[in-house]
């Protein structure tokens, strides 16, 4: 399964970006999909997740109220809308997927860099 993340870039603090993750030709009805982020020398941390079939979501505390994860069945795409960006949001962002019965994310996109300048 190939996940294709895009949409990163350079933005000023307080600005917005929208990341997308395409999953062409694949249905993820029984999967959770998520966005993770990672900085050099640090662990990859989950930012937000969504159960594809129900739309139920999870957010890490630091992004609640600022980020929104969503999915579009018809477009086979996962989104992460990021508003009110802060310098600490700077990282490489990855999309990932796991079967709902699995504890680990098995499928990963290639990562997209988000840089927030203060």
How many DSSP H or I helices? 0
Rg, Å, rounded: 13 Å
Low-confidence stretches: none
What order do the SSEs take from the amino end to the carboxyl end, as H and E? EEEEEEEEEEE
Question: Main sheet?
Answer: 7 strands, mixed
Shape: globular
Q: Tell me what portion of residues adopts beta-strand conformation.
A: over 45%
Helix content: under 10%
Tell me what the structure shows:
With 118 residues, this protein is mainly beta. It has strands spanning 4-6, 9-12, 17-22, 31-38, 45-51, 57-59, 67-72, 77-82, 91-99, 107-108, 112-117. Strands 2, 4, 5, 6, 9, 10 and 11 form a 7-stranded mixed beta sheet that branches. The model has no long low-confidence stretch (mean pLDDT 94).
Structure in a nutshell:
With 118 residues, the protein is mostly beta strands. It is 0% helix and 51% strand. The chain is globular.
Characteristics of this structure?
118 residues, mainly beta, seven-stranded mixed sheet, four-stranded antiparallel sheet, 11 strands, globular
List the helices and strands and how they pair.
Elements lengths: L3 E3 L2 E4 L4 E6 L8 E8 L6 E7 L5 E3 L7 E6 L4 E6 L8 E9 L7 E2 L3 E6 L1
Parallel strand pairs: 2-11
Antiparallel strand pairs: 1-3, 3-8, 4-5, 4-9, 5-6, 7-8, 9-10, 9-11
């Amino acid at each position: 399964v190939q996940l294709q993340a895009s949409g990163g870039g350079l933005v000023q603090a307080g600005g917005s970006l929208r990341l997308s993750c395409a999953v062409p030709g694949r249905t993820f009805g029984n999967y959770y999909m998520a966005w993770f982020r990672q900085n050099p020398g640090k662990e990859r941390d989950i930012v937000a997740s969504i159960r594809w079939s129900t739309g139920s979501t999870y957010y890490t505390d630091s992004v609640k109220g600022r980020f929104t994860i969503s999915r579009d069945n018809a477009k086979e795409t996962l989104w992460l809308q990021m508003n009110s960006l802060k310098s600490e949001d700077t990282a490489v962002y990855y999309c990932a997927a796991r079967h709902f019965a699995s504890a680990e994310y098995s499928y990963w996109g290639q990562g997209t860099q988000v840089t927030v300048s203060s």
